[in-house]
Amino acid sequence: MALYKNGSFVEDTWRFLAAEDDVPSDGAIVLGKARFLAEREALAGRNAPLGIIIEPGEGLAGIEADIHRFALVVLPFPKYTDGRAYSLARMLREEHGYRGELRASGNVLRDQVRFMWRCGIDALEVTHAGTIAALQAGAVSPVTHHYQPAGLEAVEHRLAGARPWLRRAAAHP
Amino acid sequence: MYRYDEFDRRFVAERVAEFRDQVARRLSGELTEDEFRPLRLMNGVYLQLHAYMLRIAIPYGSLNATKLRRLARIARTYDRGFGHFTTRQNLQFNWIRLEDVPAILGELAEVEMHAIQTSGNCIRNVSADHFSGAAADEVADPRVYAEILRQWSSLHPEFSFLPRKFKIAVTAAEHDRAAIQVHDIGLHVKRGEAGEIGFSVYVGGGLGRTPMVAKKVRDFLPEAELLSYCEAILRVYNLYGRRDNKYKARIKILLHEAGVDEIARQIEEEYEQVRRRGVLLLPREEIDRIAAYFAPPAFEELPARSVTLERAKALDAGLAEFVARNVTTHKVPGYASVTISLKAIGAPPGDASAEQMEAVAAIAEAYAHDEVRVSHEQNLVLPHVRLDDLPVVYAALQKADLATPNAGYITDIIACPGLDYCSLANARSIPVAQRIAERFGDPARQREIGDLKIKISGCINACGHHHVGHIGILGVDRKGEEFYQITLGGSGDEMCSIGEIVGKGFSSEEVVDAVETIVDTYLKLRQGPGETFLAAFRRLGEAPFREALYADAG
Amino acid sequence: MKKDAKGAGPQVVTANALESGLVVFRAPDGRWVRAIDEAQLVRGREEAAVLLDAATADAARNIVVEPYLVDVREEDGRIMPVLLREAIRAAGGPTIVEVSAYLHAAAI
């Protein structure tokens, strides 16, 4: 497993809690949505970064008010043809104003990476060897012209005098 | 016609480069077939029965001479000299080598064409009324909105991995020639009380295994909010459409299971969010900028009646017949729209040779303001022809074997490629269409029968739209034999209805006789020639047809 | 739609060539050939499994796509697929006259 963020592969400093693990008193931890909901009150007093895993079928229901508590949201892509997490990513960024790390995990192919970035995902947990190589080589996708605004507006340009829905890619995260 | 600017050109060039790389990765073995399949499908490449098939997007069916000639050249260079026009106004080549696809895409890009999203679980080519810009009954040109939707949906980052394919159609006339009610989203462009443009929005229509007529979710959506509203519909579908069973994954099933009121509520809720951000609202000047591409050509002021045409008709019964059947009233006096039937008796429906494409290109340039359309009925249309020019146009069409005067007749059959080409099919479609056309090919007999739409699909996926055929024919496999199930009373227009299965299926040998029995029953029971087959069926119900078909079965 | 072979009688393995997409059959010497008559004929579950394994390995080596077994029968020394779908594939083209040939014939 390799974590790609801000243009390079980095060490993952987050601890993903297994079901049988107790919540440690300090350190950055990541929990599933169900566990977060079950232990929400207890977690409230904890003074360390908190991350959440939202499976595509779980959606954002029930955690809308908590979104600003998270420093990391992990969106698994169980199959690369399952596109639900793209919507979740945009809703987190655009409707809930989430500004923390938004991480895709799963069998990420390089052909999806552009879509992920455009939906506001800014970190990738990659297992596919070809994708890792492409990210290292900076050869993810040649498509830089886009026909719709999406996700993190900050990383794309509007074009002066052109159709307002057009975007040009700036440097990717 | 829409013209690419520098942005559009670069976008397509980048996409061609990306696909060239994907093909190279497949051929080198970096991508497995399982990984490559969704990527190739998103660019219209199928692996069919005999070879790869490439489906090329013809946005809302709009072509010109340059594009048609390029399609002809591709047909000749990379295929077997012909192409197949589809019910979604696209073109398919049946004999393509994977390694040639990048070169073909390069050739297409030069004439502002591509194959983006002609397959895959994404938003497909947006279709529209083939008489757009010419129809006397339209309130605006629906291509303007189809083009805006085309742009917005192109490589949409959120909606490229939907539960299933997603089809949008637009019409701007009360008489629906775009079959909007059997699309995932159907848009009916209307004018409000103050003359302002808006849309009735229909959601959840579709054919396939579970045919459904779309439900109206909005009666009048303001023009500026088109993209915001579609984005909300797509988001609800992307999140909640079923992904556990591909046969239940279309939005029609979501609507059916959750109820139209609940889905409409979810759409409106999401829509509020999208609208609040405001980023997708369409400014007036941008709509006008797109609309300018579709400005009508410089029509001349002409009398409504053409003496030249009337004289020629009097001398040539063939021309008179052609004009009566294949020529449609235009909104401008002295002009007409011409339907070029791709249903010559005995030829495969919807197919055109490279030479025929070139002939149409030449005619369009000389006599039709360089505009050609593809209709969802798998014919071509010259939308703007002077009545005075109809005799020469007819003569030129005749020379290219394209003057069959059967538009809307029983021999103007929609048929999917079926088991002759398609790897999903269970039975052949084209030979059945050909045999029906031959049986009813006599001009007097077709005239006598009048308007009658036969639609044939070679499997339950219903690419031949059999559910909305006045007579629908569905090919099935029964213990290794081709069998054909008949449905009656379907219709894809504004009075949309799904055909009813009339009884047990017929063998390949029996099916043409069965169609003849149905037609004879109609002729016997109709209240005069003014009552069409569909009207008669709606009055009579299926009982007399079933009795006639199965009388001898005991 | 593709159907799994029943395997009651003789079988051959077919696939589509990766580069051209054309229908091919696996010959006894391991080549992939266009003519079904040159295909390796196998009988019984074990022989079929060995042939399919070899074909699957060819798919993994990116020579062909999606190999599978097809039921056939022998008629006058020729190999004939049992199912219509496979007969159409083996014939190398549709059962109809394509429009370009149709128009050509009409012109003569």
Feature tags:
A: 173 residues; alpha/beta; TIM Barrel; 8-stranded mixed β-sheet; 3-stranded antiparallel β-sheet; 5 helices; 24% helix; C: 108 residues; alpha+beta; 3 helices; 31% helix
Please give a quick description of this structure.
Chain A has 173 residues and is an alpha/beta fold. Chain A is 24% helix and 24% strand.
Q: How much strand content do the residues of chain B show?
A: 15-25%
* Mean pLDDT rating of chain C: 93
Largest interface in this structure: A-B, 40 and 40 residues
Supply Rg of chain B: 23 Å
Tell how many strands the DSSP assignment of chain B holds. Answer: 21
Distance between the termini of chain C: 37 Å
- Across the major sheet of chain C, the strand order is 3-2-1-4-5
If you consult CATH, what is the topology of the largest domain in chain B? Sulfite Reductase Hemoprotein, domain 1
CATH C-level class of the largest domain in chain B is Alpha Beta
Helical/strand content category of chain C = alpha+beta
The H/E string of chain C reads EEEHEEHH
Q: How large is the count of helical segments of chain C?
A: 3
Distance from first to last alpha carbon of chain B: 59 Å
Number of strands of chain C: 5
Domain Nitrite/sulphite reductase 4Fe-4S (chain B): 119-273, 413-549
Domain Nitrite/Sulfite reductase ferredoxin-like (chain B): 52-111, 345-399
Keywords (chain B): 4Fe-4S, Heme, Iron, Iron-sulfur, Metal-binding, Oxidoreductase
InterPro entries (chain B): NIR_SIR_4Fe-4S, NiRdtase/SiRdtase_haem-b_fer, Nit/Sulf_reduc_fer-like_dom_sf, NO2/SO3_Rdtase_4Fe4S_dom, NO2/SO3_Rdtase_4Fe4S_sf
